[in-house]
Amino acid sequence: MATPGVSGVQARPVEFLLSDMDGTLLRPDHSLSPRTLDAVRALREAGVAFSLATGRPPRAMLQQIEALGVDLPTAGFNGGSIVKPDGSFLARHHVPVEAAVTALLLFEPCPQVETWVFADNEWLLRNLDGALMPLERQALGYAPKVVDSFEEYLPRIDKIVAASSDHRLLVQLEARLQAATAGQAQASRSQPRFLDLTALQADKGQALVTLAEYLGVPLERTAALGDGGNDPAMFQRAGLSIAMGQAEEQVKRQADVITGSNLEDGAAEAIERYILMR
């Protein structure tokens, strides 16, 4: 169940909602529920602009963009690539080479970590042995490309991911990577199993600002919806911030209101209760 909003938050009508995908709009099996589809449709029919901000590559957003009827620029790679409907870029930022090398060297000695590199519109791996790879392939909707080395891609990396089922290890690696790449890149856990490294400008909060400016919507008339460690950046800039029920406590504490989990159609609940009812 959703909690009441903070005083005054609900008085302002929302003109633009920016939503995370995995763990938010999508159920654990990566599907969209009928209620969520209906809520987004009702949102758009009410004249509220709607778009997506996710750690996914733009290539892995196409099916959801079509299903949700999104006709605005969308933010992939945590905002590192903001892509217009015609495929051109509103913004694009690569990971600095020095930060990319730092991350790769940090992850390499960890046998529990699968290292994934996204560059040149490809998902790059050194081998196909990882236990999480098949699940990610299903989620992204395309297969990885095996390479001998990541070296030739270093100047064009959009994102590096450390994937692991060892959540405690990822928390430790997150702290170390943040310290080692401070001022160079963004390091955050987009999901409990994923630690992302993206460009410093690849920030969902900045993506919200860029998209709001593109639409001509004041930030106080925007809303952000999410569940992961990369979503509070949106919360801090939006007029209304909504965290999913299954989000970690540190994420929930930074939101104005809490909705249900993604197993409970929490995204639809949030749209219905906090945006459409205004």
TrEMBL record:
GO annotation, cellular component aspect: cytosol
Keyword match Hydrolase: yes
NCBIfam families assigned to the protein according to its UniProt record, in alphabetical order: Cof-subfamily, HAD-SF-IIB
Statement: the UniProt record of this protein carries the keyword Iron-sulfur: no
CDD domains given in the database record: HAD_Pase (cd07516)
GO molecular function: magnesium ion binding; phosphatase activity
Protein name: Phosphatase YidA
Organism the protein comes from: Pseudomonas protegens (strain DSM 19095 / LMG 27888 / CFBP 6595 / CHA0)
InterPro entries: Cof (IPR000150), HAD-like_sf (IPR036412), HAD-SF_hydro_IIB (IPR006379), HAD_sf (IPR023214)
EC number(s) on file: 3.1.3.-
Enzyme class: hydrolase
Domain of life: Bacteria
Record key words, sorted: Hydrolase
